[in-house]
Every structure is written in C-alpha cells, then in structure tokens.
Design a protein that fits this description.
Elements: E1 2-6, H1 13-21, E2 29-34, H2 39-52, E3 59-62, H3 105-115, E4 121-125, H4 129-137, H5 139-142, E5 147-151, H6 162-165, H7 168-175, E6 181-184, H8 186-189, H9 196-203, H10 208-224, H11 233-239, E7 246-255, E8 265-267, E9 275-283, H12 285-297
Parallel strand pairs: 1-2, 1-4, 2-3, 4-5, 5-6, 6-9
Antiparallel strand pairs: 7-8, 7-9
The structure holds alpha-D-ribofuranose and calcium ion (CA).
Alpha-D-ribofuranose binds next to helix 1, helix 6 and helix 11.
C-alpha cells in the first residue's frame, strides 16, 4: 500500500507520476495527499485527474500549505488570492467542481498508519511538510510507516534541491523520524529528461486523461520558455517502487539547516549528525523514459 504526497500543479512531473501510477495495477495507491502553497487547488487537480481514470475510489486529501519556519516561494509572475495564498499554475477554473475529502491530509496519513501498521510506504514527491506534521502530531503512529520513499536532495556538489529547500525543517524532522528511508536524488532524477521526440510522443496521446495532462504540459512548456527540458523526477521515484531503474547505496546523510549550506544534504563527516538512508547513485534513465511512455500509452492497463 502507498500514500502519495504531491505538490501537483507547479512542475509538470507530478501529474505524470500520478498518471503513471494509474497504469501500474500492482501498486495499491490508497490515497493522494497534497502539500505546499495551495493544497486545496492541488487537491482539485489530482481529483479531476483521478476522475478521468475512473479512480474516484482513491481519496484526495489537502494538507499543509505553509512550511514549518520559512515563507513560501511565490514567483513574480504568479497570481495570489486576497489572503496571500498563491494560485497554482496548472489549476483551471473548470476544475473547481472536483471534490476532495474533508479530512486533513495529516489526519488521513495517521489514520491509515494506525490501521495498517508496517504496511504503508509513504511516497513524497513534494516538500516533506505533511509528513513532518504527522510525525509531530503522533510520533509513535508515524513510526508505523513501512518506509518513506522521497524524491529529494542532492548528495554531491552543494546544491539545495527544491523539495528540501521549500521546507528544510520538515525534511530534518522526517529524516530523524526513525522510519526506513530511501531517497531518489536530483543527481539521478535529473537525467530523466524528455527529448523533443518524447515531448511530441506524449503530446500525440489523445486519451481523455492525457488530453487533461497535455493542457497542463503545454502551459508548463510556455511558462518555462525553453529554460530546461521537462524532467521526470517524480515519475522515476514512483518507478523505483516496481523496477530497479536505480541502484541505491546505503549511506550516512547529513542535512544542514544553517548558513550557506541551508537545505543541502551530503555524506556526513566525522562527528556530524546523520541518518542512514538508501540513496540513489545511478539510473537507467532512457530505459525509464521508455517505460513511462509505454505506460501512458497503454490504455489496457487502466484499472
Ligand atoms: O527538485 C525536483 C522536485 O521539485 C520535483 O518533485 C519536482 O516536481 C519539483 O517540484
Ligand atoms: Ca513534485
């Protein structure tokens, strides 16, 4: 069983991760929780997508908008609501009718962990704020998670990866929560980029589900204006649940919260605090991209 915690609606790869999951029947997705900035709009996007897959049995739960300590990032071109809540770029007014659960994401996570001890893998493809609040609310229940799989962090080269940078305090809390953790790093995920040909392939899939995603994808391409190719960080992370696309090394990882290294992770030096975790160290990136494309195309597998 997995719970997917996502910041769907900003970068495009979360939507591809959710879509890919809909084509992997061997993964038992029991809920999607949303995190960061405007969880309500994100929940409506996820819900609308699940509906197109006829998977309204999977509940969507809105979580925590604000990081534990720092302010949220809002790009100059983004619009805000009167109370300062940012609008999510891939949220469209026609998604307004889509419904998500009333229960808060943090309570849903804790309820499920209580009900299914040592059976649930928590998969985070956004900042770790929801998981950190779940831990702070009930550490003993949180420890009933079987494993955490997290897209985040860069081990080498002093770089603060986005999902940690958005809420470093939450990352530290989750790292220290005594749940086995596997991270799929920026170094490996960033190799999973779409070529021009991949983009054309994806855009040519005209199922209702992919038409929904391709509208978001087109906006992403326009907003991104060629600055970088679309990168499938989050789909790869989900893909590691079912196939050996990455090799992992067990290492002692240190996270820094202060100074110039804030939000960075690296191998712990002698005497530093650390968490032992499995860290992706390489990736069969082309193999993964072909896997993803075939999944998106294969309507037979949609449950
Ligand atoms: O650094 C990559 C992560 O940030 C991914 O989860 C991607 O979706 C972006 O939000
Ligand atoms: Ca993400």
């Amino acid at each position: 069983m997995i719970i997917l915690d996502s910041d769907i609606g900003d970068d495009i790869d979360d939507a591809f991760a959710v879509a890919m999951l809909m084509h992997i029947p061997e993964i038992d997705l029991i809920g999607i929780t949303t995190v960061y900035r405007n969880c309500e709009q994100r929940a409506k996007i996820a819900s609308a997508l699940l509906k197109l897959y006829n998977r309204e049995d999977i509940g969507v739960y809105a979580g925590v908008n604000k990081p534990i300590k720092q302010a949220i990032y809002i790009a100059p071109y983004e619009t805000k609501q009167p109370d300062g809540t940012p609008n999510i770029p891939h949220y469209y007014e026609d998604m307004n009718e889509s419904v998500y659960k009333e229960q808060h994401a943090v309570d849903f996570i804790l309820d499920m962990l209580e009900k299914h001890p040592n059976e649930i893998t928590l998969v985070a493809i956004g900042p770790l704020t929801n998981f950190a609040y779940a831990y702070m609310k009930s550490p003993d229940v949180f420890k009933k998670a079987k494993q955490i799989v997290f897209m985040g962090g860069q081990i080498e080269g002093n770089y603060a990866e986005w999902n940690i940078k958005c809420d470093p305090e939450a990352a530290k809390i989750v790292f220290e929560a005594s749940v086995p953790i596997k991270i799929v790093t920026l170094e490996t995920t960033k190799l999973c980029e779409f070529s021009e040909e991949d983009i054309r392939f994806v855009q040519s899939i005209n199922t209702p589900q992919m038409t929904f995603i391709n509208r978001m994808f087109q906006k992403w391409l326009v907003d991104n204006n060629g600055r970088r190719p679309p990168i499938m960080y989050d789909p790869l992370t989900v893909g590691t649940l079912v196939q050996d696309f990455c090799e992992f090394e067990r290492m002692k990882v240190h996270i820094t919260l202060e100074g110039k290294e804030r939000a960075m992770i690296r191998r712990a030096k002698e005497g530093e605090s650390f968490t032992v975790m499995d860290v992706s160290i390489n990736v069969k990136h082309r193999e993964f991209i072909e896997y993803l494309k075939q999944k998106l195309l294969d309507t037979k597998e949609i449950i």
